[in-house]
Amino acid sequence: MPKLMEDSHxxxxxxxxxxLWKDAWLRLRKNRMAVASLLFLIFALVICFLLPTVGxxxxxxxxxxxxxxxxxxNQNLSNTFQTPDGSHWLGTDQSxxxxxxxxxxxxxxxxxxxxxxxxxxxxxxxxxxxxxxYKGGKIDTFMMRFVDICxxxxxxxxxxxxxxxxxxxxxxxxxxxxxxxxxxxxxVNVLFDILPLCIAIGCLGWFTMARxxxxxxxxxxxxxxxxxxxxxxxxxxxILFKHILPNLLGIIIVYTSxxxxxxxxxxxxxxxxxxGVEAPNSSWGILLSEGATYLETEPQIIIIPSVIFSLTLLxxxxxxxxxxxxxxxxxxxx
Length: 334
Hints:
The chain is mostly helical. The chain has one domain (40-51, 99-331): MetI-like fold (Orthogonal Bundle), CATH 1.10.3720. Helix content is 72%, strand content 0%. Helix 4 (99-135) crosses helix 11 (249-272). The two termini are 47 Å apart. The mean pLDDT is 83.
């Protein structure tokens, strides 16, 4: 009887087991910098997306200003460069606009562009790299030589030209949504201000992801479970997208987390050069560009957005590094 109980207890322990994602979460929790970065990113998302929404809903209907939230595009030329106080938590800019609201709305635009462009880039890169790695041979050689050629092109210049072309093509749809479907003009302007940049950056930023996925697929397709799937007569599409790619999900997530800050920085660069988001809409790049004009006389105009922008990029990179070490312990630097 004791032996049976002992065997039963051992079986219960064996059944509990653990999963890859649970192990990864336990490893991630031990990385204090990654956890701190994750908490900061959650905080940034909450204040950038939730606070402006709450602020707009709580604006007085009689036209008076809220005591804590000011519309980001409202100008007051008699109240420029005000220092932070109870009315304007971060002060005002050169046009008397509330800098706190501008930073929040700028964060919305920059983060949205980074996430949407990354989704486009990851989708293209994963499909392209997976097909190249799985097919191999001449098809793989041709597809990857095309990627090599694209790497040699001035991507920033091409992104600028591509976004301008997309912007010109979408103007007719913008008018149609406003006139025929009665969409909010401010919403449509923001939407069509963001989409061209997202498409341009995403469609020209997938080359690294394609290389990573291709190399992983080439090594994975030789494993036993893939050979077993082939012997069962499964189609190439099923083997690639239902058996190989799901096993590469960890690597794809890691490189996705490291791509978002790169694209946010790309958007900031374009906006800083005056080729990104158009006025009166705001982004962190536009705030840096506007603040650079008054760097010597009013440094707080550029210091506040640049600190928030830098902390967000650092948090994304630290979290991406921690995620990589958690999902792939062999690649850990520790």
